[in-house]
Amino acid sequence: MTPNTTARNESLFMAMELSNKNWKLAFSNGEKVRHINVVACDQKGLKLAIERSKEKLGLAPDCPVYSCYEAGRDGFWIHRCLLGMGVRNVVVDPASIEVNRRRRRVKTDRLDAESLARMLMRYVLHNEKTVWRVVVVPTEAQEDERRVHREYKRLSGERASHLNRIRSLLVLHGVRSRKIAATDNSKLRDWQGKPLPAALQEEIRREQARLAVIDEQIKTLDAQLRKAGKEPKTVVEQKAAKLAKLKGIGAHGSSLLSREVFGWRTFKNRREVGAMAGLTGTAYASGDKVVEQGISKAGNKRVRYTMIEMAWMWTRYQPDSELTKWFMQRFGAGGKRARRIGIVALARKLLVALWKYVEFDEAPAGAIIAA
User: Fold this and answer.
1) Are 132 and 119 in contact (CB under 8 A)?
2) Domains of the chain: which residue ranges?
3) Which of 40, 25, 138, 23 is nearest to 80 (CA)?
4) How many CA atoms lie within 13 A of 324 on its CB side?
């Protein structure tokens, strides 16, 4: 959103505190604050509240309207709705909003909305970019492209939960079967050599039935992702195919990175790339006290988890690359803890290297690239 230098009494500022049933709206012209409640998702009520606030605060019907709300479960449809109404909206990262550091402080939706409205005025009128962090909003098509790999990850987690549940039920009776997904429970014997109890067998069969459904869905999504990598059509799929040529990246990792990061986001420098994944350091220095608090973990957690896994795979499948040599020289001779710390640094370096490879065709030094 472009900063506005219009006088305060010529613009309307609106902050939205969202909840499941009602939305708390705080309107201001820079001097007065007006609070209105509307039913959640009521677009007509929202538009009417904006028009009435202009009238009550003595603003022109065609005055510019600025708004903000915190990113959350409602996603970005509200942002697109407000843009359609002619409102200049920003979606704010909740973790970046400054708060009172008192041990006990009053917190209500009304006060939170009013505080957001004041910060919005600072952001717009005084161009205070550091008052919070604005979320980059994808288009509807870009957001929809992320559904496949996110569902794949979620189903993989569900599959592990079902397998662990079946394994735990068997261990209760002293059974440690390796092939638990499709095992005939009637043939299993407990620690005494007797058949498993009937109710237990039925529960395991139900778990196996749910597991079979998940396996089928995972297989379908896996085939879809691999087909998109082999026959890329969109820009996102082309970037995923390009990443997959690097040994050790894989179809799923390349798909996630292209759809979450490289397919629709732009970065000015390597620091922005690392910050997006929450892989940047957070130093604490006060007087003579200097402490390194570790990575910020403030970015996209899916990208962060994937890059940690990918960094381990990189050391295995790209042993002659400069990144692997750097890691082995710095952390290879250390213990497990040192290597776990070092792999995070490698993940950050690898993410930057992949960004340069995708955007500027700068291949990671010493890396193996398939023809």
Assistant:
1) yes
2) 8-137, 143-231, 238-360
3) 138
4) 19
Angle of CA points 332, 334, 335, to nearest 5°? 115
For the stretch 126-161, pLDDT in tens is 999 889 999 999 999 999 999 999 999 999 999 999
pTM of the full predicted structure? Answer: 0.85
Using only the alpha carbons of the chain, give its radius of gyration.
26
CA distance 189 to 16: 60
- Residue 64, burial from CB neighbour count under 10 angstroms (0-12, 13-18, 19+): middle
Contact 170, 201 (CB under 8 A): no
The token duo for 118 is 């004041």
The pLDDT tens digits of the residues spanning 218-241 come to: 999 999 999 988 889 889 999 999
Q: What is the pLDDT of residues 319-368, one digit of tens each?
A: 999 999 999 999 988 889 999 999 999 999 999 999 999 999 999 999 99
Which of 305, 303, 311, 298 has the alpha carbon at shortest distance from 342? 311
Tell me which amino acid residue 41 is.
Answer: C
DSSP E strands: which ranges in the chain?
A: 12-17, 22-28, 33-39, 65-70, 88-92, 281-286, 289-295
Measured CA to CA in angstroms, residue 95 lies from 98, 117, 135, 206, 284 at distances of: 8, 17, 11, 41, 18
CB-based contacts of 258: which residues, under 8 Å, 6+ apart? 236, 237, 239, 240, 243, 358
The percentage of residues in the chain with a pLDDT greater than 70, rounded to a whole number, is 97
CA distance 110 to 112: 6
Fold of 8-137: Nucleotidyltransferase; domain 5 (3.30.420)
Q: Work out the number of other CB atoms within 10 angstroms of the CB of residue 50.
A: 20
Burial (CB count <10 Å: 0-12, 13-18, 19+), residue 9:
middle
